[in-house]
């Protein structure tokens, strides 16, 4: 993977033991993260932690609801996700979904 981002400083050290190079970059974390694919930014994060940190409203503002739905279904247990949202929020959402005539009898 290759990413390009503005950096405040760069330090390169070669390692004789491993034959590799160690690069230390000081920069703005948000600038660096903005260059990564969404999958790389979210790798190894628990969806519940993401929702808890951002808040459901802000998350849905930033990412389309359909994209969030697909990602959550692919990366989490739906029961745990619904539990994290909370029954009171789900009831509130359902109560504002429109005309009661659209509900099954």
Quick recap of the structure?
With 105 residues, the chain is mostly helical.
Structural overview:
The chain has 2 domains: 1-36, no CATH class; 37-100, no CATH class. The model has no long low-confidence stretch (mean pLDDT 80). Helix 3 packs across helix 4 (56-62) and helix 3 (47-54) packs parallel to helix 6. By secondary structure, the protein is mostly helical. The longest helix is centred in the middle third of the chain and has 11 residues, at 65-75. It has a two-stranded antiparallel ribbon. It has helices spanning 29-34, 38-42, 47-54, 56-62, 65-75, 78-85, 87-95, and strands spanning 9-14, 21-26.
Summarize the SSE layout with pairings.
Layout: E1 9-14, E2 21-26, H1 29-34, H2 38-42, H3 47-54, H4 56-62, H5 65-75, H6 78-85, H7 87-95
Antiparallel strand pairs: 1-2
Helix pairs in contact: 3-4, 3-6
C-alpha termini separation: 54 Å
* Helix content class: 40-55%
Structural class: mainly alpha
| Major sheet | 2 strands, antiparallel
Low-confidence blocks of residues: none
Q: What string gives the helices and strands in order?
A: EEHHHHHHH
Percent range for β-strand residues: 5-15%
Number of DSSP helical runs: 7
How many domain units?
2
Shape: elongated
Numbering strands along the chain, what is their spatial order in the largest sheet?
A: 1-2
| Number of DSSP-assigned strands | 2
| Rg for CA atoms | 21 Å
Average residue-wise pLDDT: 80
């Amino acid at each position: 993977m290759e990413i390009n981002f503005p950096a405040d400083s760069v330090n390169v050290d070669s390692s004789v033991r491993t034959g590799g190079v160690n690069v230390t970059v000081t920069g703005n974390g948000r600038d660096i993260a903005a260059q990564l694919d969404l999958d790389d930014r979210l790798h190894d994060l628990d969806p519940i932690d993401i929702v808890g940190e951002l808040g459901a409203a802000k998350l849905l503002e930033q990412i389309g609801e359909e994209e969030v739905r697909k990602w959550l279904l692919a990366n989490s247990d739906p029961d745990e996700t619904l539990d994290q949202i909370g029954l009171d929020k789900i009831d509130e959402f359902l109560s504002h979904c429109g005309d009661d005539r659209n509900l099954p009898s």
